[in-house]
Amino acid sequence: MPSLNPAASPDASTSATGHQASTIVLAVAAFVIVTTEFLMVGLLPALARDLDVSVSTAGQLVTLFAVIVMLCGPPLTAWLAHRERKRLFVGVLLLFAASNALAAMAPNLWTLAIARIAPALALPVFWGAASDTAAKLAGPQRASRAVALVYLGISGAMLFGIPLGTVAGEAIGWRGAFWVLAALSLLVAALLQVVMPRMAATERVRLGEQARILRDPAFVGHVLLSVAVFTAMFTGYTYLAEVLEKVALVPSAHVGWWLMGFGAVGLGGNWLGGLWVDRKPLITTAAFSVLLAAGMVATLLLATVPVGLVIALAVWGVANTALYPICQIRVMKSAPQAQALAGTINVSAANGGIALGAMLGGASIPLWGLESVGFVGAGVALAAAVAALWMAQRLRRHRFSLPTSSATSAAS
């Protein structure tokens, strides 16, 4: 990603209040955009019934979205990051409005798949530019708070996008949920057009220059670890709504509220992950991966015991939510010289894991039954924990075998 450039600053005549309003709208845009990605998980049961396909087949829409983000995210972000940001963001929101409207009208799974391609291309571009833009709008003294506000919208979508979609799907149908997202996308595009100042385009930096961090084996190891962690998470999470309905026998009208509770409890995990990851990123990754495995297995074993199910889901939710910031911070810490690009690459890696998880869970259902998604996901989580501990040991040895100046901050 390009470094901060004075030419990229908004017009001086724009007030501080306007900058704050722009950042707030950008956070709302982040919520809408990321909710569009994760909404599908909560709608899978209803969508599969309406389109007369299996849940595992419908789940591959999650795979499709994630694969496109994974493959296209870094090059598209590097290619478009220098463009004028207001025009870029408004264009992304209009594209999301059109694609969500097409999804709402889709007569079959193939049309719905086409409707998911465009937002999958645009999402990583937004991720790559939003925090940088918020920092420039706020100025040096308020940059960190502005970036935190934008990521609050992203975190909120990760936590509540799926349950809100599930509740909306039950109330107005899955097509209605997509219509609501289309309307929200249009509204946010209009708000950005009104409140956000125009920002001068920045100088383009060649992708090859930005991608030098990929030559660092430690950085690549961290990225691959994120793939494994997200594979574990989404092997079970993609089908959690179906597990609650079919295994735990939760009424379909109540599934969304259970998922919302899952996300709300997870807020504690978000705090815990951020608290510990700075000091021991790999050890923290391993610990929460083990906790994730325990939560998934316990949820399946205690599915018919209400109190046990609540506790198991709480453990799963805490670990699941904690691993989002843990992986992002861990990868960015491993490349301090290019943290913006590192963060974008981690988003692509995470989406690769989401795709693999949805595929793995979808493949295990016809072979071993719906309950298998939790056990398969737990196995991957334990493998990720072992890999994290192995990386911590290797990086610690490497650090102490080199001069101090060569040691990296990526060690455990």
Detailed description of the structure:
With 412 residues, the protein is mainly alpha-helical. The protein has 14 helices and no strands. Helix 1 packs across helix 6, helix 4 packs antiparallel against helix 5 and helix 8 (217-237) runs parallel beside helix 13 (339-368). The longest helix is centred in the middle third of the chain and has 53 residues, at 143-195. The protein starts with 15 loop residues before the first helix and ends in an 11-residue tail after the last helix. The relative contact order is 0.15.
Summarize the structure.
The chain is mainly α. 80% of the residues lie in helices and 0% in strands.
Write the layout of secondary structure elements.
Elements: H1 16-51, H2 55-58, H3 60-80, H4 85-105, H5 109-138, H6 143-195, H7 207-210, H8 217-237, H9 240-246, H10 252-276, H11 281-301, H12 306-333, H13 339-368, H14 372-401
Helix pairs in contact: 1-3, 1-5, 1-6, 3-5, 3-13, 4-5, 4-6, 5-6, 5-13, 6-10, 8-11, 8-12, 8-13, 8-14, 9-10, 10-12, 11-12, 11-14, 12-13, 13-14
